[in-house]
Specification:
Number of helices: 14
Number of domains: 1
CATH class: Alpha Beta
Order of helices and strands: EEHEHHEHHEHHEHHEHEEHEHEHH
Helix content: 40-55%
CATH topology: TIM Barrel
Bound molecules: ligand G3I
Distance between the termini: 24 Å
Largest sheet: 8 strands, parallel, barrel
Shape: globular
Number of strands: 11
Radius of gyration: 19 Å
């Protein structure tokens, strides 16, 4: 498919370059809005459910599952020949409401998590290509985050989660986190954690750096250096949740150009360092979490993606496409 005065789409360019360019997907928009459907399928070759595969969305009660939204997105991905990322099996956030009131024992938590991973990863054994098995297990100071999972199972829950996923799926298995995109205290801690897991033969294939570039825009050179060191451990590295914004009270006059420049710099850093996958955290600005996530998101400019509210291509879109095209021509 070609649009914009005969220009190839982003997906055309990415396919040719064998690069994976994805978007986080909201099932209601997919069902309701033809422009959303068309943009997602023609401009991206990868999808990930933004919320539909999280425990809170999947588990209306302790013993039941609701896969309707997750299935809709996975089916959409498969039908359109896209790479499908699963997000996420184990996280401390977005647990079901009933969970908070559950008076559980440690053994019950362990059995619950094992069953959850077996059921969810098993259901999509052949249809999900990559899973964020564990999300955000490291705290901002580099320590292991205290969560309901670590309280019940100790730090070993991370290794257990990867092993349980590996028992039921053919997907590649990722550790995913924020604030660790460049070389810093947190990414050092994640590096040490993953190195220890690999030494113990825990089945882990890669690491996802979210890259929510909001107030701070991590240095692309440091991102490249970070990608390289994790790849040297034998891990694949993916950028899994990219968006680029500015503090709401300090939006520069040339925000659209600066945003485009940053997207371009990240794509270039990624390609140079051997990362072959970037997923943006939404299809268009109208659907960004920054506009709906109360207290946090509202502090940032609400237009962090490649397409604007009307699905028009932004300078950031052209920057990403051109960076991929340029690289292809080398
Ligand atoms: O589904 C309910 C809906 O029934 C209700 O009417 C509505 C009222 O507020 O809330 C809806 O749930 C919201 C959900 O998104 C679906 O829209 C939650 O309140 C809201 O908190 C939730 O936010 C999500 C957030 O994760 C939760 O922590 C964002 O959409 C999602 O983009 C965001 O994604 C995370 C990644 O998973 C991990 N990395 C960080 C990233 C951004 O925070």
């Amino acid at each position: 498919m070609s649009t914009e005065q005969g220009q190839p789409t982003l997906r055309d360019v990415a396919d040719e370059r064998e690069f994976t360019i994805g978007a986080a997907i909201d099932p209601d928009s997919l069902r309701r809005d033809p422009s959303y459907w068309k943009t997602a399928s023609s401009e991206f070759n990868a999808v990930t459910p933004e919320n539909a595969l999280k425990m809170g969305a999947l588990r209306p009660s302790r013993h039941t599952y609701d896969f309707r939204d997750a299935d809709a997105i996975v089916d959409f991905g498969r039908e359109n020949d896209m790479y499908v990322r699963g997000h996420t099996l184990v996280w401390h956030n977005q647990k079901p409401d009933w969970f908070q009131a559950w008076d559980h024992t440690d053994e019950q938590i362990e059995a619950f998590l094992r069953n959850h991973i077996h059921t969810v990863a098993g259901r999509y054994r052949a249809t999900i290509d990559a899973w964020d098995v564990v999300n955000e297990a490291v705290d901002d100071d580099g320590s292991t985050r205290r969560t309901v999972w670590s309280d019940a199972m100790g730090e070993g829950y991370i290794a257990d989660a990867f092993r349980w996923a590996d028992e039921v799926t053919d997907a590649d298995l990722y550790y995913n986190d924020y604030g660790a995109d460049e070389v810093n205290e947190k990414s050092d801690a994640i590096y040490d954690l993953l190195e220890r897991l690999l030494e113990r033969d825990v089945p882990i294939d890669g690491v996802g750096f979210q890259l929510h570039a909001l107030a701070a825009h991590p240095d692309p050179e440091s991102i490249a250096e970070n990608i390289e060191r994790f790849r040297a451990l034998g891990l694949d590295v993916q950028i899994t949740e990219m968006d680029v914004a500015f503090p709401d009270d300090d939006v520069p006059a040339d925000a659209a150009e600066r945003q485009a420049d940053y997207y371009r710099a990240v794509v270039e850093a990624c390609l140079e360092a051997g990362c072959e996958t970037i997923v943006t955290w939404g299809v268009h600005d109208g659907g960004t979490w920054l506009r709906s996530f109360k207290d946090f998101g509202e502090r940032y400019s609400g237009d962090p993606l490649l397409f604007d509210d009307r699905y028009e291509r932004k300078p950031a879109y052209r920057a990403v496409r051109n960076a991929l095209e340029k690289h292809r021509e080398r």
